Amino acid sequence: MSEVNIVEAPPGIEGSGFFATSLDKVIGMARANSLWPLPFATSCCGIEFMATMGSHYDFARFGAERLSFSPRQADLLMVMGTIAKKMEPVLKQIYLQMAEPRWVLSVGACACSGGIFDTYSVLQGIDEIIPVDVYVPGCPPRPEAILDGVLKIQELVKNESGRRRNSPEYKQLLAKYGIQ
């Protein structure tokens, strides 16, 4: 839970009190509870994600019910399933089209590590081409695991400093992936 303190108003200012908190915490809380995910689903993990969107698990209660199929409107890329090497430039282009700040959730064994497909045609983990924030293991992972991954992303977003994206460490991480 965010730390919000109610402070008594200084003398001469009417009102019972005002809120005092850091701007980073307010922005983090707003971002965490209004994620716009872009699902990039290719196989059985996509089916599990569909179950997560259903009424039984209710993905909407986490503030992420508005799926965006446009990278320019999304801030959470959810990669689910087997990623063939032919899809590598497409996935990277989608990531690059997303505005900052952006987060990536890798769902399933295939997206995380190539899964059982140790072949020349399958990418052995999407972290070879784009940075990943949270991994959800499983083959395929259950909807509860996907929801847990989203909760971890929300926690990361909530606690992320507004200055992190401009830090030398973050710029060095993007440079590792060939992203300017």
From TrEMBL:
Sequence ranges assigned to domain NADH:ubiquinone oxidoreductase-like 20kDa subunit in this UniProt record: 44-152
Enzyme class per UniProt: translocase
Binding annotation for [4Fe-4S] cluster: C44, C45, C110, C139
Classification via Pfam families: Oxidored_q6
GO cellular component terms, A-Z: plasma membrane; respiratory chain complex I
Keyword Ion transport part of the UniProt annotation: no
SUPFAM superfamilies cross-referenced by the UniProt entry: HydA/Nqo6-like
EC numbers on record: 7.1.1.-
Record keyword Membrane present: yes
Cofactor(s) the protein requires to work: [4Fe-4S] cluster
Compartment annotation: Cell membrane
Record keywords: 4Fe-4S, Cell membrane, Iron, Iron-sulfur, Membrane, Metal-binding, NAD, Oxidoreductase, Quinone, Translocase, Transport
Record-linked InterPro entries: NADH_UbQ_OxRdtase-like_20kDa, NADH_UQ_OxRdtase_20Kd_su
Main location: membrane
GO biological process: aerobic respiration; electron transport coupled proton transport
Membrane topology type: Peripheral membrane protein
Gene Ontology molecular-function annotations: 4 iron, 4 sulfur cluster binding; iron ion binding; NADH dehydrogenase (quinone) (non-electrogenic) activity; NADH dehydrogenase (ubiquinone) activity; quinone binding
Reaction catalysis annotation: a quinone + NADH + 5 H(+)(in) = a quinol + NAD(+) + 4 H(+)(out)
Taxonomic superkingdom: Bacteria
Family: Belongs to the complex I 20 kDa subunit family.
Subunit comment: NDH-1 is composed of 14 different subunits. Subunits NuoB, C, D, E, F, and G constitute the peripheral sector of the complex.
Function field: NDH-1 shuttles electrons from NADH, via FMN and iron-sulfur (Fe-S) centers, to quinones in the respiratory chain. The immediate electron acceptor for the enzyme in this species is believed to be a menaquinone. Couples the redox reaction to proton translocation (for every two electrons transferred, four hydrogen ions are translocated across the cytoplasmic membrane), and thus conserves the redox energy in a proton gradient.
Protein name: NADH-quinone oxidoreductase subunit B
Organism of origin: Hufsiella arboris
